[in-house]
Amino acid sequence: MTGRVWTPGDPDRSDPKARRRVRLLATGLVAGFVLVALGHARLAVFAEADRPAEARAERERTLPVRADLVDRNGELLARSLRFYTLFLDVRATRDAAESLRRIASVVPDVDTAAAMRRFSQRRLGQVIVHADVSPRQRAAILAAGAEGVVFEESTRRVYPRGTLAAHVIGFVNREGRGVIGAERAFDAELRAAGSMARIALSIDVRVQYAVEEELERAARGSSALGGAAIVVEAASGEVLALASWPTHDLNAINRASDDQKLNRALTQRFEMGSTVKVFTFAEAIEAGRVGEDALIEVHPLQVAGSTIRDFNPVEGPLELARALAVSSNTAAARLALGAGATRQRTMLRQLGLLDRPLRGFAEAAAPIQPATDRWTPDRVATIGYGHGVSVSAFALAEAFSVFANDGRAVRPGLLARPDGLEPPARQVFSPATTRTLVRMMRETVTDGTGIRADAPGYEVAGKTGTAEKQRADGTYDPDRQVSSFVGLFPARAPRFVVFLMLDEPQRVAANANLSTGGAVAAPAVGRIVTRIAPVLGVTPRRTAADGPIVEGTPG
Amino acid sequence: MAISDVQAPRRSGLPGFVSAWWAGLDRVTLSTLSVLLLLGLVLQLAASPGATARIGIAEPFHFFERQMVFAPLVLIVALALSMLSTVGVRRLGMALAAAGLVAMAMLPLVGHTENGATRWMIVAGQSIQPSEFLKPGFVIVAAWLLTRDVTVRPGGRLKAIGLYAVIALLLYGQPDIGQMLLLGTALMVVLFVAGLGWVWVVAVALALPALGLFLYSTMPHVARRMDAFLGLATPLEQVEVARDAIQRGGLIGVGPGDGMLKRDLPDAHTDYIYAVAGEEFGLLAGLIIIGCFALLAVRSLGRIARADDRFTVCAASGLVALLTVQALVNIGVGSTLLPSKGMTLPFISAGGSSMLGTAITVGFLLALTRERADAQLAGFRQGH
């Protein structure tokens, strides 16, 4: 080495000032280490005090994560899924093309060119890259090491079955709150239960599917404006199917029209017509004013200045069962007048026909009924055969379940009922009365207006209904009808109620140019019964397909 | 390897040298180094599967396996370098600085770009980051420039600062703001220990905000990270995840292998290895890591303060600053006390260049803090 020779360890070069400074440096570094240790401890031990973490937790708490909706057998109807909106933070991204390439390796449908364009137009903030990234994709994007990515978490309600039971399930708004249907009725429960739980509806998707298909077929086949159908298990009060047509896809709710979204089983009310006669007949028998074998006049009847006639006049007097089988207005009016306003109102109230059905469902409409002091004899007579009180399809099916339940009225609901738990019920008619009525309604199917509702082996009993709709001026329009059929099966020991209703069916050739309940609704009910009875565990009785009703359950 | 070629004959020629070397060695720092290397192995075992999955490396324990190679290598290199004489440290340091500077200057031409930064070059299939080797070399050169003469002459200072300016410019161009600031800090420490007037110390402290503002306005990603850190912008994903990991770990951690968030952490095996430690082994592991680095600093600086050679004092202080400030920044980022800044945790983070660079740093440090039986020996060994 040349020049300046440097010798290590030369005492002349020792420097006390340097030592002080080294100690100062040591003190500073130790202070630094103590600081980071305290910082770690603050996070790890006193996490609650940390504001950003709290804000993050808060954000997650407020996210609308709802419980699943499932059918009675656990089939998924609605689920909330987390998803993310993916942004690229302009200033945090050094190489946007590289980040986008890594993103595209995970989500191939990303519009890289558009994102790149947006990116190059901005110098600050965030540009959207993809509006729908799943949690799995998010993890993969992070794993791919894409720089500058920012994820905004949201949840979305997904309806895996699309249109199935659309009106029962309802839907949620952007904030994830239920707007209508079960989503609204059970909103609090769904939100409280969180994503770990599920709420089971009474609906059976197999039954629901058959009902929706047959309803659509009947409605399209008769060019109806709309229709509704309901299946109720009478003893438990569980609604197994509730359908409204036309329907919509819950996953594309923004494209659904108001007409499609209208729940015709709950919201629309109609003067149901002849189906109501069953209740009038039952009340008369229950009160003992007529016997099952009694004969009743069916000639036209004058009440308060107006004349009541039958749709298809026949020679009377008729046995009660015949009068029901031919759907005689005059017989029903006579029986209703026999009961009087008070008894009639009491009976209808006990059956639930004068109250709003289905608590919790805001779209379930209250019936339209005359005020108590206007319950005049002419009204009593018309109400007796189904005019004067307008009810929803649901309310009618609910009331009719009394005949499949030995005279007990239940209030059906849309939640699955735990096994063995009996619903509250009120005895409206005696079991003997309802058995009599079931026999009479069986005759309506075997040899009356409802003959096309029969499902061989399943012994459908029921009643047709064909009601003319009122014009704006209050008169009735014979060309605009509400045609329905209410049935129960199996008649030997009724368990299930099926109601189907069509709004303004047209007289088409396929239905023998008829639009009556017997022509358009009864066949649909028959097909529904044929399809759902095996699912519901009802075994067909081949020998008694068209034979007389056998009392009691077969031994 | 060139190092051992030089040293080996001398060692064999002087049988007493080995025992003298061992007797003079700072064995506490050596033990601390070993503990940190072992911790590194454990943490790579934890971090590797997630990190490899995210990068797309098929072998899940890739980083652990590499660490199994590099950890012993670090120990060997450090021990080998610890045998150097002071002048040997100086010479090797200058050679490293020269080689590193040349390599860095070549990066714009032959460098390998990753994530928008050109910091690496590929040599024989291995990715090498020259700045990692330049760092200890620069500290040695700066200390030498400042202590060549009895009195610190402005000329030495200016040369040291000028050299730093050149390196800083290269680092800024890569860009590698973290290394730039780290090296600046080390230079400040060397200047400080070499007796920089307090006026200048205060002046630099006052200039720091200006530097911060400059970086903020010229480097978008720096600005983004600062905004996120100050709460002006959406928190960065990795910062949030690291914070959650530390919180989730609590006092004693969720247990080895049970860490979940480590899979969401980018650079879990390098920049965010501390958060992995915090999640799986909790505050306990954090305190052990912090304690090790604090011990390394206190122990080494304690010995340095007793040294009677100004070059040793300045160079060793600078080397301690390199190791500990880098550790402080990594831990500060990992525990989200500092804004996101990519910096490895010495001895623990994966990465060959970083591991070898720190091995050289700690090897130089051990050499400089070695107690010599008599100054004559050192003088004899170099004086010809």
Would you kindly provide a written description of the structure presented here, covering whatever features stand out?
The complex is a heterodimer of chains A (555) and B (384). Chain A has two domains: 81-156, Alpha-Beta Complex (Penicillin-binding protein 2a (Domain 2)); 206-546, 3-Layer(aba) Sandwich (Beta-lactamase), CATH 3.40.710.10. Chain A is 35% helix and 20% strand. Chain A has helices at 16-45, 51-62, 96-104, 112-121, 135-143, 166-169, 181-185, 187-193, 205-221, 258-261, 277-286, 320-325, 329-350, 377-384, 393-400, 431-447, 517-520, 522-532, and strands spanning 68-70, 76-89, 126-133, 149-158, 171-172, 178-180, 198-200, 226-233, 238-245, 270-271, 295-296, 301-303, 306-308, 318-319, 390-391, 408-410, 425-427, 461-470, 476-489, 496-503. In chain A, strands 1, 2, 3, 4 and 7 form a five-stranded mixed beta sheet that branches. In chain A, strands 9-8-20-19-18 form a five-stranded antiparallel beta sheet, with helices on both faces. Chain A starts with 15 loop residues before the first helix and ends in a 23-residue tail after the last helix. Chain B is mainly alpha-helical. Helices cover 73% and strands 3% of the residues of chain B. In chain B, strands 1-2-3 form a three-stranded antiparallel beta sheet, with helices on one face. In chain B, strand 2 and strand 3 (126-128) form a beta hairpin. In chain B, 53% of the residues are buried. Chains A and B meet through helix 1, helix 2, helix 5 and strand 4 of A and helix 3, helix 8, helix 10, helix 11 and helix 12 of B.
